[in-house]
Amino acid sequence: MAEGNGTTSSIYENGEYLRHHPSWHAEDSDWKARHIYEILVDHDINPATVCEVGCGSGIVLQRLSEALVTAERFVGYDVAADAITMARSNQNERIQFVHADLLAIESPQFDLVLAIDVFEHVEDYLGFLRLLRKKGKYFVFHIPLDLSLWTIVRPNLLLNMREIAGHLHYFNRETALATLESTGYQIVARRYTSGGIDLVKAGWCQPKSLILRELRRALAALNPGLAARVLTGFSLLILAQ
Length: 241
Hints:
Blueprint: H1 10-13, H2 16-20, H3 29-42, E1 49-53, H4 59-67, E2 73-78, H5 81-87, E3 95-99, E4 110-116, H6 125-132, E5 136-144, H7 149-153, H8 156-165, H9 173-182, E6 187-193, H10 195-198, H11 207-222, H12 224-230, E7 235-240
Parallel strand pairs: 1-2, 1-4, 2-3, 4-5
Antiparallel strand pairs: 5-7, 6-7
Helix pairs in contact: 3-4, 11-12
């Protein structure tokens, strides 16, 4: 989940993250892969080589390999041995998973680099992004929008994201875009996603959670940007080069 120079990798390497997330978020992978594939198709991006930094369970990369049938090579990197052990069950002749910090090793430049829910975990996220920029031609980022009116009035939610999800930095739309632009990326396209609407997880069937989900859905139908500013459960998907 976390990669690169400046990362606090101990919780990923010592098994603590696995204890909190035994599936390594594999249940979200189909949803994430679908959104990534759609933004690539919408902008006619047809990579021959694809890399995912912080690949976790590897299922996002596997699903994309099934959709991107003309791509020749997929490589996933993660500093967590637990994640790579899980991911290698999905390895085949087109997909390889490597237990390494991509930014610390020599590698070819990839046509497409994925960083899906990654750099909010990295201590020196600006240094991470500058180094990552050298690894690819196109990039897809998926960034949780943790900063909202809801988390301002309920700051314990941010602390929970830090303790349970390992988020060290919190973003809204403006700071996420500014972070990428300031580290040398050119934004090609961006769109909102909402796991808080589309995904159903354990504990989310409580009445309060269901009400919040429907509130997200109604507000996002009117104005997704406003919904992300007000409520939790939204992310920003960005295609950059």
